[in-house]
Each structure stands twice: as structure tokens, then as C-alpha cells.
From TrEMBL:
Pfam families: HTH_26. Transmembrane segments: none annotated. InterPro entries: Cro/C1-type_HTH (IPR001387), Lambda_DNA-bd_dom_sf (IPR010982). Residues 21-62 form the HTH cro/C1-type domain. It comes from the Bacteria. This is Helix-turn-helix transcriptional regulator.
């Protein structure tokens, strides 16, 4: 997946533990762990907002887009009409 979750890095920089963040933003430690590992397919904007508010960061500090090499090599379809 081309989206890289860097939440663990930001948490380490801020010296915030998972259980503290999970409690502060109102999600389970299990869901936070899944989010940190990148094993989730979706993220509510309200959750992202709460994380950014608590950690005093922006979404781009937590999420990074890195296209797959296959996607870069594959030519885009030409638009017709």
C-alpha cells in the first residue's frame, strides 16, 4: 500500500505512550496498535483530527504517500473524447 503510517515515529518524538494516546482520543489500544502498524484500510477524519490535536502535529507528519514502483512504471490510460 502506498500510504505509510508514521504515527509511531511522531509518538516517540513526543514521548507519548500508546495507552495514553488511545485513552485521550477515545479509541481502544488494539485499534491504535493496528493503526500504528498500517494494518487498517481506513481512518476516520475525526480520529485523525484527535490524534493531530493531541500530538500537536499535522496529518502529513503521520501519513506519507509513497507510490508503489509498479504504479510509477505503469503508463496512465489516455483520456479520449
Amino acid at each position: 500500500m502506498p500510504i505509510i503510517v508514521r504515527l509511531d515515529v511522531v509518538m516517540a518524538q513526543r514521548k507519548v505512550r500508546s495507552n495514553v494516546l488511545a485513552r485521550a482520543i477515545g479509541i481502544s489500544e488494539t485499534n491504535l496498535s493496528l493503526l500504528k502498524s498500517g494494518k487498517v484500510r481506513g481512518l476516520r477524519l475525526a480520529t485523525l483530527d484527535a490524534i493531530c490535536r493531541y500530538l500537536d502535529c499535522s496529518p502529513s507528519d503521520i501519513l506519507e504517500y509513497r507510490p508503489d514502483t509498479e504504479e510509477i512504471a505503469r503508463p496512465k490510460a489516455l483520456k479520449t473524447g
